[in-house]
Design brief:
With about 160 residues, the protein is mainly β. It is built from 2 helices and 13 strands, in the order βββββββαββββαββ. Strands 10-3-4-13-12-11 form a 6-stranded mixed sheet.
Length: about 160
């Protein structure tokens, strides 16, 4: 938050971020929209041998081969059950380029200010918490904000 003084009063300028809210099981997660390249319906994937279980395969999207990660498996949740609402979100990552992530549902885009997001302690050891950098409050729901560093093709220490 930025503070300025105008006519003797402190003015607080809050920064806002847009997040795509996704559902994995019963939980809502938020992905910073600046990392989202595309959202596509579920499609046939080509399996890749000898890769970690959370890498579901690759898809061909407009001539580009994109690896697809199952966030459910990566986060230690129950395996994916493909439904009509299942989507692949194509993310732009620094370490791996474009990567697809399977989600149960894309719910909506929300705008949250800094004051609406509580940061998670950096020393949190629980695996699921390790993928989350904050928890946002939107209407009557909590949205766990995903750490984009956890969206990687590489296996990470839990």
């Amino acid at each position: 938050m930025e503070q300025t003084i105008l006519n003797g009063e402190v003015q607080v300028k809050e920064e806002y971020t847009q997040y795509i809210v996704i559902r994995l099981g019963a939980e809502n997660f938020g992905i910073d929209i600046k990392h989202v390249d595309n959202i596509v319906r579920m499609q046939r994937m080509t399996r890749v041998p000898k890769v970690p279980a959370y890498i579901r395969g690759v898809i061909n999207l407009r001539g580009e081969v994109i690896p697809v990660i199952s966030l459910r498996v990566k986060f230690g949740l129950e395996p994916d059950v493909e439904q009509k609402s299942t989507r692949i979100i194509i993310l732009k990552t620094e370490q791996d380029g474009n990567v697809g992530v399977m989600v149960d549902e894309v719910k909506e885009v929300v705008t949250l200010g800094e004051s609406q997001v509580d940061k998670v302690a950096p020393d949190a050891r629980e695996t699921k918490v390790g993928h989350v950098i904050g928890v946002g409050k939107y209407q009557d729901e909590l949205v766990s904000i995903l750490d984009m560093a956890c969206i990687s093709l590489e296996e990470q220490e839990a």
